[in-house]
Design brief:
By secondary structure, this protein is mainly α. It folds into 2 domains: 48 residues, no CATH class; 53 residues, no CATH class. Strands 1-2 form a two-stranded antiparallel sheet. A hairpin with an 8-residue loop joins strand 1 and strand 2. The longest helix has 15 residues. The radius of gyration is 17 Å and the shape is globular.
Length: 106
């Protein structure tokens, strides 16, 4: 029987972060973490959908960014909550993290 697409994507995410694979069963029913992947340091919840509103926004930003030869990044904030969330494609994560580190050192 072929693997379900969402399980294959969770395995892909686990490999990307050097995790110990996906969490079997349904989160807390596994007796371990409630995260979708088994990792010692990070907690990952993975959602595989036909469409995500944030990714639709990212697609629009990508077109504009590529015209300028830049990496697309979407940031999201919520009124009354400190900080913000950063959305970047996995292929660009290292480059964006490196840019953040250079900015932090200035």
């Amino acid at each position: 029987m072929a693997d379900k697409v969402w399980k294959a994507r969770e395995r892909q995410v686990a490999r990307y972060f050097g995790a110990n694979g996906r969490t079997p069963l349904s989160g807390g029913n596994s007796g371990g973490t409630r995260a979708d992947i088994r990792h010692d340091f990070i907690f990952v919840e993975h959602k595989h959908r036909v469409r995500h509103a944030a990714i639709s926004l990212w697609d629009k930003v990508k077109k504009l960014a590529r015209k300028e030869g830049k990496i697309p990044v979407v940031t999201l904030s919520v009124k009354g909550r400190p900080g913000f969330w950063v959305m970047v494609h996995s292929d660009d994560l290292t480059a964006v993290a490196n840019q953040r580190e250079r900015a932090r050192q200035q």
